[in-house]
Specification:
- The complex is a heterodimer.
- Chain A is globular.
- The two termini of chain A are 25 Å apart.
- The longest helix of chain A has 22 residues.
- Helices cover 39% and strands 13% of the residues of chain A.
- Chain A is an alpha+beta fold.
- In chain A, a hairpin with a 3-residue loop joins strand 10 and strand 11.
- By secondary structure, chain B is of the alpha+beta class.
- Chain B is globular, with a radius of gyration of 12 Å.
- Chain B has a 5-stranded mixed β-sheet, with no helix packed on it.
- Chain B has 2 helices and 5 strands.
- Chain B has one domain: Ubiquitin-like (UB roll).
- The chains are: A alpha+beta, B alpha+beta.
- Chains A and B meet through helix 8 and helix 9 of A and strand 4 of B.
């Protein structure tokens, strides 16, 4: 089993919470989490609906391994139609709330409609009810979390919450759980706030014991944990340095997007790197990094817990930010640092705290600030637009001010909350938006890592590294090293990563396990936990089915294959330094082969044969 | 000839005393390879997972076979990853 076979449907219009059976036919085809919730979404909403209207639905979803003893089995996702991209959104988060949902007996919670007044959902095992959030509305995630814990007098209550940015309509707001883990991308928090749903508080004590073959499961899980422990990346590299260790790697190979992706190397990279987080600060002699941290059931523990120097200008009169909190991941450090030209580690850490506190996706925020800085430099934005703020690259004080405004949706922060695409459109320079399908890029320049260009262009949620992380192969040599500057073979590589990742996500596992695990390690765990035979081939087939389902949803939402592209800058303006000097991304050399491998027509349409193959 | 060695993450422990942050300028024999450079400062070869020469990945065989050129930058990491 592994699934609880039970979902909770919350009608926000009527204020009712109803249990219903999980559709097991769909579970057999889509496994769980990302895949299964996308199936529900695709079946239950009109893909053309207004993402911020009551006809959109929001699904919090676990996988069959969520809440089990499988390593990293604590993942959950928030699935909805994105207000940023207008496409399917699936934002994945760790922490503890996913496992808590499962322990309360729910595979999935589906929210529909819109509450007439702000509410939160309280779940205690089988009991589920909507309660007034009048006292929570207008509060930050951190404030609301504290209020709810005090109100329920339960320190073990797990809470997912939206912040003030979502209430203000920022289009890339996150759903933050456990204070500093986030379903971060594509504006899933904005959808949640649009439904007047402030928080979900869950307590589950039922356990997750419904494993198909417990003995086989324990053996498979233990074998998997041994692989993670013995692997130098998951056993040592990630716990010690976290994802931030990539800062110097990617910069060294000339694939570090810098100052709105105009450049490919950042002169300040060393100062904001994973290594720098270990160095004693000049101000107080303490390092930025306090310790690492793990999510539910994780035996890797890549998370960062950090502090800001109390004497730093950003917090010297704000003692509420002097404590430990969720620290920098590579993506946040890049977007807030390199892309804006800021090399002040304390400022970036503080802004990252703000992103957690008020539920902002730091990738989209940093990239939107970078676009604003270039618009300002070009004269398209002036101080009349910014409320007197003199925007400019490399300005830590400006970055801090803009984050404080965006967190509460005031002043120029309102403009920044639109995201890079709409901001650049508004100010008449659409070509300066570094986005795919209206979502901002993550931290790998596709001129220096060719396969990532194809991965970005074809990602089903707009520019995203986690839909097909070919960096593993092209840079890190996992599972095999490929040359980042060639295009040959990249279509096949991208497809393989996309399909495998969809399956891993849908199991309820963390993508980082795949630095050590292949599907040969994962399939036996799913197979032992779930009814039926879950072979490697079946897992990959499910992954490919999910990819096609997401594509189909997007096409029905109005997306065209013309949007499978990159910004002109990355296709026409060559890298200026480093190994990729003189190169653009050669997307046109990869895309036709990719369509063919997918079983799509030359113009990117899912063919009848492919639909029949996957039952779509 | 002189080359620049850069050691990152846990390999920083092998940096010579004159290093600044991650970087040290080192004299090596003409024709020296990346592996010879690592041997010179005591970095175990099996800990050098990712080796970049002027930003370009050097495979294991190239680390033995490709002679370094004056001014080359050799950057080395243990097994690491991110996302």
């Amino acid at each position: 089993m592994a699934w609880t076979r039970k979902i909770l449907r919350v009608d926000l219009n009527a204020g009712t919470c109803t249990a219903e059976a999980l559709n097991m036919a769909w579970a057999n085809d889509y496994l769980g989490q990302r895949g299964l919730a996308t199936k529900y979404l695709a079946e239950e909403i009109d893909p053309k609906c207004d993402p911020l209207g009551p006809d959109n639905k929001l699904i919090m979803t676990t996988g069959p391994l969520t809440g089990t003893m499988a390593s990293t089995g604590g993942r959950y996702s928030v699935v909805t139609k994105s207000p940023l991209t207008g496409l399917v959104a699936c934002s994945n988060s760790g922490g503890f709330i996913g496992a808590e949902m499962k322990n309360a007996g729910w595979d999935m919670i589906i929210f529909e409609g819109k509450a007439p007044e702000p509410v939160y959902l309280y779940v205690e095992n089988d009991r589920a009810e909507l309660r007034s959030a009048a006292d929570l509305w207008g509060k930050s995630v951190w404030e609301a979390d504290e209020i709810l814990h005090k109100k329920h007098q339960d320190p073990q209550l797990r809470i997912a919450c939206v912040g003030r940015s979502a209430e203000a309509g920022c289009l890339y707001s996150a759903v933050v759980n456990d204070l500093h883990r986030a379903a971060g991308r594509s504006g899933v928090g904005t959808v949640m706030a649009s439904k007047n749903l402030k928080a979900v508080a869950v307590r589950g004590t039922k356990g997750v014991g419904n494993i198909a073959d417990p003995q086989a499961f324990m053996a498979a899980v233990n074998a998997g944990k041994q692989v993670l422990a013995d692997n130098a990346v998951t056993g040592q590299g990630l716990p010690t340095y976290g994802t931030q260790v990539l800062m110097n790697v990617i910069n060294g190979m000339g694939a570090m997007p810098t100052r709105n992706m105009r450049e490919v190397q950042f002169e300040g990279a060393e100062k904001i790197s994973g290594e720098a987080m270990h160095e004693p600060r000049a101000g107080d002699g303490k390092p930025n990094l306090t310790t690492n941290a793990g999510c539910f059931g994780c035996t890797i523990a890549c998370g960062r817990i950090s502090t800001v120097d109390k004497g730093h200008f950003s917090v010297n009169n704000k003692p509420e930010y002097w404590g430990n909190s969720g620290g920098l991941e590579y993506e946040a450090a890049w977007a807030l640092g390199s892309d804006t030209g800021v090399d002040d580690l304390d400022a970036i850490t503080y802004v990252n705290f703000l992103c957690n506190e008020d539920g902002i996706d730091p990738i989209s925020f940093g990239a939107t600030v970078a676009a604003a800085m270039e618009l300002f430099e070009a004269g398209a934005i002036t101080t009349e637009d910014t409320g007197g703020i003199d925007l400019g690259f490399n300005r830590a004080d400006v970055l801090v001010k803009l984050a404080e405004l965006t967190a509460i949706g005031e002043g120029f922060g309102k403009d920044l909350g639109m995201g890079s695409k709409r901001l650049c459109d508004k100010y008449g320079r659409p070509e300066l938006s570094m986005t795919v399908k209206s979502q901002e890029f993550p931290a790998y320049d596709p001129r220096g890592i060719q396969g990532m260009g194809l991965a970005y262009a074809t990602s089903n949620r707009g520019a995203c590294h986690l839909r097909g992380y070919t960096v593993a192969s092209e840079v890190l040599g996992i599972p095999v090293k490929t040359d980042p500057l060639v295009t040959e073979g990249k279509a096949e590589l991208v497809k393989a990563f996309q399909d495998a990742t969809a399956a891993v996500d849908s199991a309820g596992l963390c993508a980082f396990t795949t630095f050590a695990w292949s599907m040969e390690d994962i399939a036996p765990q799913v197979d032992a936990a779930c009814d039926g035979d879950w072979s490697v081939d079946r897992m990959l087939e499910v992954g490919e089915r999910i990819w096609n389902l997401e594509r189909d949803f997007n096409m029905r939402a109005g997306m065209t294959a013309d949007e499978d592209t990159l910004p002109r800058r990355l296709l026409k303006d060559a890298a200026n330094v480093g190994p990729a000097k003189g190169r653009v991304n050669d997307l046109d050399q990869m895309l036709p082969e990719y369509y063919a491998l997918r079983g799509w027509s030359p113009d990117g349409q899912i063919t009848a044969e492919t639909r029949a193959r996957f039952g779509i | 000839m002189q080359v620049q060695l850069e050691l990152y993450a846990s390999l920083m422990a092998y940096l010579p005393a004159q290093a600044e942050r991650h970087k040290a300028l080192l004299d090596v024999a003409d024709g020296a390879t990346a592996h010879a450079l690592l041997d010179q400062v005591g970095v175990p070869r099996d800990k050098a997972h990712l080796v970049l020469r002027n930003g370009v990945f050097l495979g294991t065989e190239e680390r033995d076979a490709t002679p370094l050129q004056p001014g080359d930058v050799i950057a080395v990491w243990p097994p690491v990853a991110g996302g």
